Amino acid sequence: MRVVLDAMGGDNAPHVPVMGAVQAVREFGISVILTGDEELLKKELEKFSYPSEKIEIVPASDAVPMDEQPSKALKRKGSSIHVGLELVKRKEADAFVSAGNTGAVMAISLFTVGRLKGVDRPAISAVLPNLRSQTFLLDVGANVDCKPFHLLQFAVMGEAYARYVLGEKNPRVGLLNIGEEEGKGNELTKEAYALFKAAREKGLNFVGNAEGRDIYSGNFDVIVCDGFVGNVALKLSESLAGILAKILREEIERHFISRLGAVTLKPAIRTFKKRIDYAEWGGAPLLGVRAPVIISHGSSNAKAIKNAIKVAAQFAKSHLNEHIEENIQKYGKLNGC
After folding, report:
1. Could you tell me which InterPro entries the record lists for this protein (predicted)?
2. Which residues lie across from 137 on neighbouring strands?
3. Which domain holds residue 6?
């Protein structure tokens, strides 16, 4: 299994991506291809001890700035993103990871490896913790304006990811809405609900509308929404997780007795922090393109990059895209396509 890592992507590149790659090689035995400035990457690698046969550098003469428009990024044929995705397209690697410009990664993925058969719009997804295990939320930013059948396709892709990558036997799918009742919501969600009900007759485990609180309740394994709503929900979640951790730390440090109690509770606190730490999930799978692509947060630390590489390898091993194409064909007839 070979995973390409855009070593020039992210706020702290190339140091953090290289460190994450080294950790992935050590812990998981995954082979990693780094794309980027060859001289810079060699200097970074000299700082670490690792099995040299597991990390390869493929030079890239350019890098996409974090704030560049996707249309401009597409013209950078020598960028570390473009070079990496070309390797995957040519079957010289199995998956791609980047903490770089999200729009650029999505655009270059579409133009380089292309869409899966039957997929109208790829979606960016996120894994969030819930009271039972995790919730797979999509779309979280790729498509701010959607039609009902787009949401159905997101549901099909999300259900497949939850089943074949996250290991859920019969993923429970929900439609994010302002109430549980069937008639709730705007025109988009009402029409989408009807499609989801029809898909249920064909095997989709659609259990109804999900409210915002259900993202964390554990009552759903997959929750579907448009990219505008999903991105707001994701950013709110990231902010809340950080605030909760900060408040907990402040309250522990406020009183001597609290500090004593924290010693006893240290294992529980460590587990709590791990459950809400985005770095544990690595990054956001881009579903609907013809290659496993993971988009990590621009501020990702080395642990997040390491786990993104692991997730990318799991994605590739699962043959997920084959399952998505089969299910898109199965449910696609519901929208007249």
Report:
1. FA_synthesis (IPR003664), Phospholipid_synth_PlsX-like (IPR012281)
2. 126, 223
3. 1-119+288-318
158-162 — which CB contacts under 8 Å span 24+ positions?
158/123, 158/125, 158/222, 158/224, 158/287, 159/204, 159/205, 159/222, 159/327, 160/320, 160/323, 160/324, 160/327, 161/125, 161/136, 161/222, 161/285, 161/287, 161/320, 162/136, 162/221, 162/222
The pTM of this model reads 0.89
pLDDT tens track for 155-169: 999 999 999 999 999
3 state SS of 271: helix
What 8-state DSSP symbol labels residue 140?
S
Q: What is the DSSP letter of 264?
A: H
Whether the CB-CB separation of 25 and 54 falls below 8 Å is answered with: yes
The encoded tokens of residue 129 equal 């913790």
Domain presence at residue 219: no
How far apart (Å, rounded) are the C-alpha atoms in residues 311 and 70? 25
Question: Measured between alpha carbons, how far is 69 from 64 in angstroms, rounded to an integer?
Answer: 9
Asked, as a colleague might, if the bond just before 11 is cis with ω within 30 of 0, I would say no
Whole-angstrom distance, CA of residue 95 vs CA of residue 4: 6
CATH of the domain at 21: 3.40.718.10
Q: Determine how many CB atoms are found less than 10 A away from the CB of residue 243.
A: 10
Asked whether the predicted pLDDT for residue 281 surpasses 90, the reply is no
Q: How many domains does the chain have?
A: 1
Neighbours of 52 (CB within 10 A): 9
**Is residue 270 domain-resident?**
no
Nearest by Cα to 221 from 125, 335, 328:
125
